[in-house]
Amino acid sequence: MEPALILADEWIGLKVEVVESPNPSEVGLKGIVVDETMNTLRIKTEKSLKTVAKRGRVFRVWYKGRVLRVKGDLIAFRPEERIKRGIMLIKRAKR
């Protein structure tokens, strides 16, 4: 399994944790992604629903039995664009 596939996959339903952020109150925030926009992830935590910007953050993501670190800048696109771009990046990397 290629870790890079996470860039071209659906994030809704994935467990995530914010590990780096310019906003210290976001660091350590963890839960399940319930919605995604071009610039944000909506994360359902144990207590509430939080909206976190993608840019400038680093996320720990539980993906297909692995734990990965993903820079938010790499996923800061509309979900459908991110999936298309991710597939193109993976194809280029295999050449």
Would you give an account of this structure?
It catalyses: Endonucleolytic cleavage of RNA, removing 5'-extranucleotides from tRNA precursor. This is Ribonuclease P protein component 1. Keywords: Cytoplasm, Endonuclease, Hydrolase, Nuclease, tRNA processing. Consists of a catalytic RNA component and at least 4-5 protein subunits. It comes from Archaeoglobus veneficus (strain DSM 11195 / SNP6). The protein is of the alpha+beta class. The chain has a single domain, classed as Ribonuclease P/MRP, subunit p29 (SH3 type barrels, Roll). The protein is built from one helix and six strands, in the order ββββββα. The chain has a six-stranded antiparallel beta sheet, with no helix packed on it. A hairpin with a 2-residue loop joins β5 (58-63) and β6. It starts with 14 loop residues before the first strand and ends with a helix. The relative contact order is 0.25. The mean pLDDT is 90.
